[in-house]
Amino acid sequence: NELNKMNIAIVGTGYVGLVTGTCFAETGVDVTCVDVNADKIANLQKGIIPIYEPGLEDMVLRNVKAGRLHFTTSLESCLDNVDIVFSAVGTPPDEDGSADLRYVLEVARTIGANMKKYTLVVTKSTVPVGTARKVKAAIREELEKRGESIDFDVASNPEFLKEGNAIDDFMSPDRVVVGVESERAKKLMTKLYKPFMLVNFRVIFMDIPSAEMTKYAANSMLATRISFMNDIANLCELVGADVNMVRDGIGSDSRIGRKFLYPGCGYGGSCFPKDVKALIKTAEQNGYSMQVLKAVEDVNENQKGILFEKLVKVFNGDLKGKTVALWGLAFKPGTDDMREAPALVLIEKLKQSGCNVRAYDPAAMDESRRRIGESVYYAHDMYDAALDADALILVTEWKEFRLPTWGVIKKAMKQPVVLDGRNIYDGDELQEMGFVYHCIGR
Ligand code: UGA
């Protein structure tokens, strides 16, 4: 009914769930966020946000205050009121790299066992093609156990948020992809996304397997661009070309475009590495081999070691006892996330070679402590990190690293060596100041 206020539930208050729930609440929808983790829910009720995401905290507090955003540990208790349940629970990789659907199917069974009226069950977690079918079967099975025949639909609505930019991505997306198999589901999803239509984007409706596939294809394509550019950058170094110019040269072809063509020290994060692996796996299970993606993975593994190799060259293999300043620990700026972060690979190699590491990151220091303890020295700021260092390595291109006072850095360091893993500095300027400077692909 068009006159009724929309009520939705989001299961899983991780990164995707919390951003999704909060942004929908912002449009006036009544949102209940559900999580089995009681501490997390208790904290959220007190306004304590479990993740670092620019703008999220304000938005959560505002919507809680307005009475549109609620937190609970009980999915059962909110099923009576909601039209749509989004499932945004985790799908951690199995030992063999395929997504573990345990939580996704658990949510489906809870819904099947407790729903009392028509419900649209939307999967937002990144799940392999065919998962919606399993969700549907699980709900149906639970309904049959109860001897009920309540109508329901499943849908797939993959998420394309970038960490650090999630609110903007959600509020003004390039597109929203929705896989449905009934008119009723399509109508509900159209209504829910209507407030966003004002900013000129499309909801692309398609069948469910295509929507599931779109998510993996998008991330795999982006990962492919990065590995391709890393390959080109490495070759540029060998033939005396400058990858910055090559990027500009090819990016101006509108068929190629300028975005996601930045070489660096490898892609990390919770998505690209996992999704590339999962798609390779899905192909295998279907008797097909994703040759390109296998190469994308290999190149990325190699690229995570590239800064270390450059360091070895600078010091002719003699790294024992050297002090290395490390700027950036998070897998990218704007987040404290260190999953699959290139910095972790670098630190491991540096420690193995007998280096002392002085690390600084604007957001990820606590996360780093959790992961690798005190195996590195955590500096007070970027200048403290450079103190007595034989080399400084930029790993994550945080804005505050962009314009250092090089005079101060040079005085602080033992040897003026800078390795720029993201090509953000002016090499000529640094060399004029007496620094040894290396970057990627030039
Ligand atoms: C990525 C996608 O960009 C999102 O669209 C998607 O929703 C998300 O995964 C997901 O599946 O949930 P995210 O992992 O947050 O988002 O981060 P990105 O900004 O895409 O960066 C990924 C990695 O690629 C970073 O390590 C970054 O440093 C690296 N990168 C990115 C490059 O090395 N070069 C580039 O040109 C761009």
From TrEMBL:
What region holds the UDP-glucose/GDP-mannose dehydrogenase C-terminal domain?
325-427
Provide the reaction this enzyme catalyses. UDP-alpha-D-glucose + 2 NAD(+) + H2O = UDP-alpha-D-glucuronate + 2 NADH + 3 H(+)
Q: Which GO terms describe its molecular function?
A: NAD binding; UDP-glucose 6-dehydrogenase activity
Record's keyword annotation contains Manganese: no
Q: What is its EC number?
A: 1.1.1.22
Asked if NAD is a keyword of the record, the answer is yes
| Top enzyme category | oxidoreductase
Q: Which protein is depicted?
A: UDP-glucose 6-dehydrogenase
Highest taxon above the source species: Bacteria
Q: What InterPro entries would the database entry show? A: 6-PGluconate_DH-like_C_sf, NAD(P)-bd_dom_sf, UDP-Glc/GDP-Man, UDP-Glc/GDP-Man_DH_C, UDP-Glc/GDP-Man_DH_C_sf, UDP-Glc/GDP-Man_DH_dimer, UDP-Glc/GDP-Man_DH_N, UDPglc_DH_bac
Originating species: Phocaeicola sartorii
- Annotated binding of substrate, by residue: 160-163, 215, 260-264, 268, 332
Q: What does this protein do?
A: Catalyzes the conversion of UDP-glucose into UDP-glucuronate, one of the precursors of teichuronic acid.
Q: Which Gene3D superfamilies match?
A: Cytochrome c1, transmembrane anchor, C-terminal, NAD(P)-binding Rossmann-like Domain
> Which UniProt keywords are listed?
NAD, Oxidoreductase
The similarity comment for this entry is:
Belongs to the UDP-glucose/GDP-mannose dehydrogenase family.
Q: Which Pfam families match?
A: UDPG_MGDP_dh (PF00984), UDPG_MGDP_dh_C (PF03720), UDPG_MGDP_dh_N (PF03721)
NCBIfam families on file: NDP-sugDHase
- The active site annotation covers 271 (nucleophile)
Pathways involved: Nucleotide-sugar biosynthesis; UDP-alpha-D-glucuronate biosynthesis; UDP-alpha-D-glucuronate from UDP-alpha-D-glucose: step 1/1
Q: Which positions bind NAD(+)? A: 35, 40, 91, 126, 163, 274, 339
What does the entry give for GO biological process? polysaccharide biosynthetic process; UDP-glucuronate biosynthetic process
